[in-house]
Design goal:
By secondary structure, the protein is of the alpha+beta class. The chain contains three helices and five strands; from the N terminus they run ββαββαβα. Helices cover 29% and strands 31% of the residues. The radius of gyration is 14 Å and the shape is globular.
Length: 94
């Protein structure tokens, strides 16, 4: 996948040719080592349905303490693929 200079990519294209929205997550959600997950809430208080982090990364980045600027654990991923990745965590809750 090529990046255009000066423009952030907002979509990715799967092998089937469908474009998908991107979501944000951390490697702990993707590799299954997260103990629990939390949705990312926008500055306006809206739930961003395509963005989920493990609770530890969410606290590190958005918690009341000093913000840790290390974002090396964050990843962008197709929103549909992220929905599949978080499904086991959501199923544990109910």
């Amino acid at each position: 996948m090529k990046k255009k200079k000066g423009k952030a990519r907002k979509q990715t294209v799967h092998g089937n040719g469908h474009s998908e929205r991107l979501g944000m997550t951390c490697i702990h959600v993707l590799d299954g080592t997260a103990t629990d997950i939390a949705p990312v809430i926008s500055d306006r208080g809206r739930l961003r349905d395509a963005d989920w982090l493990c609770c530890e990364c969410a606290e590190k980045i958005f918690g009341d303490g000093p913000c840790e600027s290390d974002v090396s654990d964050l990843r962008t991923i197709c929103a549909d693929c992220l929905a599949e990745a978080i499904k086991p965590y959501l199923e544990k809750r109910w």
